[in-house]
């Protein structure tokens, strides 16, 4: 098995399920750090700030620093600023998205936004959805942090951001620009900031449709692990295969 300079781990379904760590992932990450590999965490979950995400990982026994975490919120805020400049934003989302947008210079408004940004929101309401639909119908750019219809927690699969964005798209007839995986914005940003070569990077994830496709699109090696959304047996139906596929991360040899 190849030695990689930088490992990019998906979180939900790969490193943990909800609030429960996956022990094999915890052990591998520790072993990789001890061997000198660099570790990064890439998540479509827009709810947590990097600091909050790092603290969550630390509670699970995983060493992590905020600067090692790339969220779809950070990538979304940067995309919006790069494409349109600083804007008034109608937002559906939680603290991670709010912080990322404000740190990028955007202003959060409750209605009439110049852009609509949708992330996971566990306090979703009819009024929030209505305001987003009205702004999109009026011509505001429509950005989704990610298109995940569902994500795994300790109870099983629960609704993801893609379900909310899909509702808005159905009402308005406008489909969002999606920033998170399977798009490669987050991986590209890590590579750019850290000066990493593609041949020294690997992406680890459980979901073929998001994690593995993101790595394939960016052109780096990928490792599928059968601990979340995509079962190992289902990989045979895809024309492009991950570089590796394991039942558990305990199978990886350092």
From TrEMBL:
Family as reported in the entry's similarity comment: Belongs to the HAD-like hydrolase superfamily. NagD family.
Organism expressing this protein natively: Edaphobacillus lindanitolerans
Amino-acid positions noted as binding Mg(2+) in the UniProt annotation, renumbered to this chain: 10, 12, 206
Cofactor annotation remark: Divalent metal ions. Mg(2+) is the most effective.
InterPro entries, A to Z: HAD-like_sf (IPR036412), HAD-SF_hydro_IIA (IPR006357), HAD-SF_hydro_IIA_hyp1 (IPR006354), HAD_sf (IPR023214)
NCBIfam families (alphabetical): HAD-SF-IIA, HAD-SF-IIA-hyp2
Catalytic residues as annotated in Swiss-Prot or TrEMBL: 10 (nucleophile), 12 (proton donor)
Keywords: Hydrolase, Magnesium, Metal-binding
GO MF annotation terms: metal ion binding; phosphatase activity
Keyword Transmembrane carried by entry: no
PANTHER family: 4-NITROPHENYLPHOSPHATASE-RELATED, HALOACID DEHALOGENASE-LIKE HYDROLASE DOMAIN-CONTAINING PROTEIN 2
Cofactor(s) needed by this chain: Mg(2+)
Name the record gives this protein: 4-nitrophenyl phosphatase
Positions of substrate binding: 181
GO CC terms, sorted: cytoplasm
Name of one Pfam family that matches: Hydrolase_6
Record has rRNA-binding as a keyword: no
